[in-house]
Design brief:
Layout lengths: L6 H21 E4 L2 E5 L6 E6 L6 E4 L3 E4 L2 E8 L10 E5 L6 E2 L12 E3 L6 E2 L21 E2 L12 E3 L6 E2 L12 E3 L6 E2 L12 E3 L6 E2 L12 E3 L6 E2 L12 E3 L6 E2 L12 E4 L5 E2 L8 H5 L5 E4 L14 E3 L5 E3 L11 E5 L6 E6 L7 E4 L3 E4 L2 E8 L10 E5 L6 E2 L13 E3 L2 E4 L8 E5 L6 E3 L6 E2 L12 E3 L6 E2 L12 E3 L6 E2 L12 E3 L6 E2 L12 E3 L6 E2 L12 E3 L6 E2 L12 E3 L6 E2 L12 E3 L6 E2 L12 E4 L5 E2 L20 E4 L43 E5 L2 E5 L5 E5 L4 E5 L4 E5 L3 E7 L2 E7 L1
Parallel strand pairs: 3-6, 4-7, 6-8, 7-9, 8-10, 10-11, 11-13, 12-14, 15-17, 16-18, 17-19, 18-20, 19-21, 21-23, 22-24, 28-31, 29-32, 31-33, 36-38, 37-39, 38-40, 39-41, 40-42, 42-44, 43-45, 44-46, 47-49, 48-50, 50-52, 51-53, 52-54, 53-55
Antiparallel strand pairs: 1-2, 2-3, 5-6, 25-26, 27-28, 30-31, 34-35, 35-36, 56-57, 57-60, 58-59, 58-61, 61-62
Amino acid sequence: MKHFYTIKQCFLVFALLLSTLAASAADSFVIGDFKYTVKTTNEKEVSVSAAKTTISGDVKIPESVEYEGVEYTVTSIASSGFSRSYDMTSVYIPNSVTEISSSAFMDCNGMTSIRLSENLTVIKARGIGRCYKLAAIEIPNSVTTIEEEAFISCSALTEMIIPNSVESIGRSAFSGCTKLTSIQLPNSLTTISNGLVSDCPNLISIKIPNSVTSIENSAFSKCKNLLSVTIPNSVTTIGNSVFSGCKNLLSVTIPSSVTSMGYSVFRDCSSLPLIYIPASVAKIGYGMFDGCTKLYEAGDEKGIYCEAKEKPEEWKETWNEYETEDGDIYLKPLWGAQPLEYLKYTILKDKDNEVAVSAANMGMAFGEIVIPETVEIEGVKYTVSAISDNAFFNCEYLVSLDIPNTITTIGDNVFSGCDNLIYNEYDNAKYLGNEKNPYLVLVSVKDEAIKTLEINNNCKIIVGSACSCCYNLNSVYIPNSVVEIGASAFMDCNGMTSLRLSNSLVNIKARGFGRCSKLSIVEIPESVKSIGEEAFIACSGLTVLTIPNSVTNIGGRAFSGCSKLTSVELPNSLVTISNTLFSDCSKLSSVEIPNSVTSIENSAFKGCKSLLSVEIPNSVSTIGRTAFKDCSSLTNVTIPSSVVKMGEDVFYGCTELQVSAANEKNGIYCSAKEKPAGWDDDWSSESDEDNKCRVFWNTQLSFAPESVANTNVSIYTQNGSVVVENADETIYVFDIFGRQVFNQNSESVVKFNVSTGMYIVKTGSVTKTVLVR
């Protein structure tokens, strides 16, 4: 059947079509780069989109727009409104906008920044997905909902802080953000959705808020650098594959609130050495530990420890049941894993009720460890005040360490080899501490090339080698909170010219400031009690040094090689001048030894070429070998009667101690009533045959003691020569420094041609000093 239309009917159809087009035109309009669509829910509001995908550069969306006499408020970004606008580099979204619709900025590959509305409430699915160059974004406190895949594959994002206003985050919201290193989740969140941060390989740690009750499937899967996760005791269920593929995961804490865990939860967590599953877990899915090679390689003290009294549903038969002595039945894998006692304590004998802490077994501290402030041992309460040497050495699976405020000293090499330990950072430095003070202990600097360093005002201890070899570091301000500077803490900081020490400082350990060659002035505060060995060794620029009376111990070589140091006043609390304490301080001209000193140890002032005189107090009983060796300017030393023991070569190379014919009383006068131990009958520090330096005086204020046991021997000078007659034994001739210059078998007359000077001649028991002019 054929249909025919009249002209009138055709006209009516055409009129209807025009009216439809007019109505459509009224619903949307274009002004400049933007297309606006009037909302059906409010005729005075519009959503905005790009008029063309060729929109480029910096884009600023207006808050309102006027069209045909009507003003419209821009309240949303339209679905796919700016998607694939590849040439757009930045976007400003006005505060009138409350919603970013789905895929609004999807695939804006050139966008590097976006400013969100302060009244934004929702970011819908894929709203800002696959914006590969977007490196940072600030989510305002107004947002309550982030939908699925909202930021998926934003591969340049490095940090994400989600405000507490956000109540829900959809699945895979941050999946594929490959440069993301940290994310702060809101404490209003109850569910961590499927794949929330999956495939974020640079994510190192994440804190799950206490509001979360459920962790859904694959939430953290393929986060291959995730090291540690603590699940709060609010969580009851853990879904499938939650940590699957987290190849570097070292520690997971599962609370007793968890009742169900899905399949493959830890699949391919190939670095996980230990896992503890509480008795509350009633259901565990299949393949939970497939590919966890560290667990299966573990010895008797590693692996999986299960608290459950019955085999949880769906566990394989290889999980043998066994009965303990008290009748409880536990599950354990075939390799016999047991829970570890991570820490051991050593009672400090020189302290009242204090202990030092360390790992119970070398290299066997795992995951997250909290050192307590106190510990009870056999009914006695002790304060944990120290961390022992090598306490956590090579604990490569240690991820987190909580150090209490009670710690006042930390040993050497404590954190060496803790390659996965997570630190708190402040001004180019890494710290450890606790929740109240995360900056308690300065462990290391982030970059050895730093020029300045601001140490956190809450820092208490600077550990060994923390800032060593920072060659460009020119000044350091150590806050008053610091009580200890560890061994080699600032060693080889060659550029450091000034140093301000804490007025609470108690201990400067070995090599603390060693080889800081440009350091010129050091004022040691009155709080310091101990200066370790080599603490300031080879600080060749040091000219001024003040050591307060609070210091009771100075270690060996503490100031050795401080070649510009001119004078030093030692504290009256010092008992021992340690080995080589001021050796090679070539400009040191004076030193005052306090009455508290009882011992001057080996080489204490060796090589102090400018030292003119030394007054040794009556308190000193021993002087070690080579104590004043090569003090070539030393003219006078008085050895008190209190000295009962002197070592070898005490004054070797002291050239100005020579006695001239014009003044025989120059030199060293020893008032000791008895010969010091180790010296021969002629106050010699070594036998002639060994060609060592000798001291040529005895208890009288005169030079050159002589022994004449063989009265037939005659020793004299003649015409610039030394003559010996009637010697029965070998004849030895030494210069004033004790160096052997001649030796010859006995004859009736022996003549030695020598240059002008003083010589010592010895044959058998006969010794005589002669002056050749």
